[in-house]
Amino acid sequence: MKPRNIAIMFFCIFAGAALLATLHVRSKMEGRSMESQWQTTIDDLQTASSAAYIQSLHYDAYARQAAIDHDASREHLFQALAQSERIHEQMCARALKLFGSSYTPPEATTDSTTDTDTTTTTAGNLSHTLTSVRTRHRLSQGSAATRAIESGNRYVARIFIWIDGSNRRHIELLEHSGRRSSPSEGVMEYLVCPKCGNIYHTASYDIYCPFCRTHYSDFKRF
Ligand SMILES: [Zn+2]
Q1: How far is the CA of 97 from the centre of ligand 1 (A)?
Q2: Most buried one in 30, 113, 143, 194, CB count within 10 A?
Q3: How far does the centroid of ligand 1 lie from the alpha carbon of residue 194, in Å?
Q4: Cα 193 to ligand 1 centroid, rounded to whole Å
Q5: Which domains does the chain have, with CATH numbers?
Q6: Residues 143-160: tens digit of each pLDDT
Q7: What DSSP line would sit under 50-97, residue for residue?
Q8: With a cut of 70, which residues of the chain have pLDDT below it?
Q9: What's the gap in Å between 210 CA and the centre of ligand 1?
Q10: Phi-psi region of 213 (alpha: psi -120 to 50; beta: other; left: phi over 0)
């Protein structure tokens, strides 16, 4: 074989090996990046479901305190908020299952189930929870929804958009309840969408839930 042909042969072997090595490294990097994208979504779902679970326990306790205080309107409100949070938790848990991940609620601690605020009054619980929900909502700024959109996961993005919208409704209803000075102003009742956790008071609601299009006749009444 001529030296020129040998040189061409070596060049081809070298170029082929270099190409294969580049492709291998690229596919490894893309795999890792995809893996970390999924992991972020899974982490966001875990965080949201655990937070919703803990918040539902707080609302259950606040509803019990409202019953002790003979404040039926706020008892209904806290029961409805607890239900809304449980629906958020279930939506996230279902999504985690689809990702092949599992969800178990965080261990119920003394802190999460018997909040010291429940030993105060319903008015105190209302004011405390309004502050904490506003802070949580302001800090999150829809960041989990944005991350899900960026990762191209429309299913999970929709869950976080529903939760964000629902949490805005929580704030509105807590504010409205705070403006009502006396429980004797008439007992308020509330409706919760069973699919997305969106919440209304019975005086004003949509025929179809604007988030998930569920008909109002399916809403659960408190
Ligand atoms: Zn809905």
Answers
A1: 21
A2: 194
A3: 7
A4: 5
A5: 3-221 (1.20.1260.10)
A6: 888 888 888 888 999 999
A7: HHHHHHHHHHHHHHHHHHHTT-HHHHHHHHHHHHHHHHHHHHHHHHHH
A8: 1-37, 108-119, 181-185
A9: 7
A10: left
Residue 16 is predicted with a pLDDT of: 58
Question: What DSSP string runs through the chain?
Answer: --HHHHHHHHHHHHHHHHHHHHHHHHHHHHHHHHHHHHHHHHHHHHHHHHHHHHHHHHHHHHHHHHHHTT-HHHHHHHHHHHHHHHHHHHHHHHHHHHTT----PPP--HHHHS-GGGGS-HHHHHHHHHHHHHHHHHHHTTHHHHHHHHTT-HHHHHHHHHHHHHHHHHHHHHHHHHH---GGG----EEE-TTT--EEETTB--SB-TTT--BGGGSEE-
pLDDT in tens, 171-186: 999 998 888 766 556 7
Q: Please tell me the distance between residue 81's alpha carbon and the centre of ligand 1 in angstroms.
A: 14
- Predicted confidence at residue 124, as pLDDT, reads 87
CA 30–ligand 1 middle distance (angstroms): 36
Residues ≥6 apart with Cβ < 8 Å to 206:
200, 216
Residue 29 pLDDT: 46
pLDDT of residue 38: 79
Distance 213 CA to ligand 1 centre (A): 6
